Amino acid sequence: MSVELPLWRALTGYRILTLVYVLGLSAVAYPRYAHPLGAAAYMAALTLWTALTWRRTTSPERCTRQFLLADLGFAVGGILLTYVIDTHARIMGGAPTLPSIWTAGAVLGFAIKGGWRWAAVASSIVAAVNLVERQELARDTVHNVVLVWVASVAIGYVVEVARASERTLAHALQIEAATRERERLARDIHDGVLQVLAMVQRRGAALGGEAAELGRMAGEQEVALRTLVAGGLVPRQRTVLDVPQDAAAAARPADPGPLPAGPCDLMVLLAPDAGAGVTLSGPGSPVELPAAAAVELAAAVSAALDNVRVHVGADARAWILVEDEPDAVLVTVRDEGPGIPEGRLAAAEREGRLGVALSIRGRLRELGGSAEWLSVPGQGTEVELKVPKGIAPEGGRRGRARA
């Protein structure tokens, strides 16, 4: 809902309530007018105008500039008619004009529609006409016109600030949505295209000849694609020969196919990762999660194993432990490598290496979970992946790495 919509509704209510008040004032003062029938005719016209145009002030689309000018004309005309219809003694005594406080509704319409500048112009016109009707700078008249001028300008300024804030919020939401979509695409690219390019680059360099040239080109494309996925915000100062080697040794299918409708057993999804060098341990009963959460968690485990193969070696031993806790599922991936030096993960993310930043940490963050790296030099590395059961809370804790 627009931030200014309640103001339009309030203006509609103000016009109706002030009309009732003005009709009451006119009925009480009817015998004292110099031309009572003229006052009654104006009140009838004002009532008909308000009744026919009440929907005009319910939204900014309906409240056009032409309507605002006509509405202000009704108010100004009523003020000038007061000089003809009412007696001179009542006017000089400070009697209210025919439209009285209904006039402020016309000025507030300008303030909400066009901001403080429109409000200043409309309230200045009303102030000048009131002074002409009174024919002197009476204290009560000056007090009323200054009050209307200040109030309308203040409301117009508030409306402009609210509109600017609404535009800023909408822009921020668009940026957030685009960033989340870019991270999702980046994870898919890392799990597929980048892994293939890294594999071609390494195999080509090992084979030599024409394959080496093909590998060099694949390496260049990997660097360019990593920069594009990362948003192009980090300046890259590496050559093709310095391409990062933290991609997986083999590509995974980019499209896992349609997800099942109900819960999914995480152990079934992790079973293909187990092998001669990877030991999978878990409960004897199924570890069920929503299908989307189970697939993302299994992909994060696979990304962690890919990092083990690249940084520790293709024959490195790794262990996967699945724990089914009452409120969450905890998966621990442990290797026998040398450990991660302090600050290495943050540096890798700055250099555009996306395995930890997106394929692991990003997946868990979107599930409302967490990813933690526990590493001791010479004693390997543990990656703890935790996903809450049921409805995932918004956001999630960021993973941390420590030496």
UniProtKB/TrEMBL annotation:
Residues 295-389 form the Histidine kinase/HSP90-like ATPase domain. It comes from Streptomyces yunnanensis. The keyword Transmembrane applies. It is found in: Cytoplasm. It holds the Pfam family HATPase_c. InterPro entries: DUF5931, HATPase_C_sf, HATPase_dom, Sensor_HK_TwoCompSys, Sig_transdc_His_kin-like_C, Sig_transdc_His_kin_sub3_dim/P. Keywords: 4Fe-4S, Cytoplasm, Iron, Iron-sulfur, Kinase, Membrane, Metal-binding, Transferase, Transmembrane, Transmembrane helix, Two-component regulatory system. This is Oxygen sensor histidine kinase NreB. It catalyses: ATP + protein L-histidine = ADP + protein N-phospho-L-histidine. Gene3D superfamilies: Histidine kinase-like ATPase, C-terminal domain. The chain crosses the membrane at residues 12-30, 36-54, 66-85, 105-129, 141-159. Its main location: cytoplasm. Residues 1-170 form the DUF5931 domain. Its cofactor is [4Fe-4S] cluster. The keyword Membrane applies. Its EC number is 2.7.13.3. Residues 181-228 form the Signal transduction histidine kinase subgroup 3 dimerisation and phosphoacceptor domain. Member of the two-component regulatory system NreB/NreC involved in the control of dissimilatory nitrate/nitrite reduction in response to oxygen. NreB functions as a direct oxygen sensor histidine kinase which is autophosphorylated, in the absence of oxygen, probably at the conserved histidine residue, and transfers its phosphate group probably to a conserved aspartate residue of NreC. NreB/NreC activates the expression of the nitrate (narGHJI) and nitrite (nir) reductase operons, as well as the putative nitrate transporter gene narT.
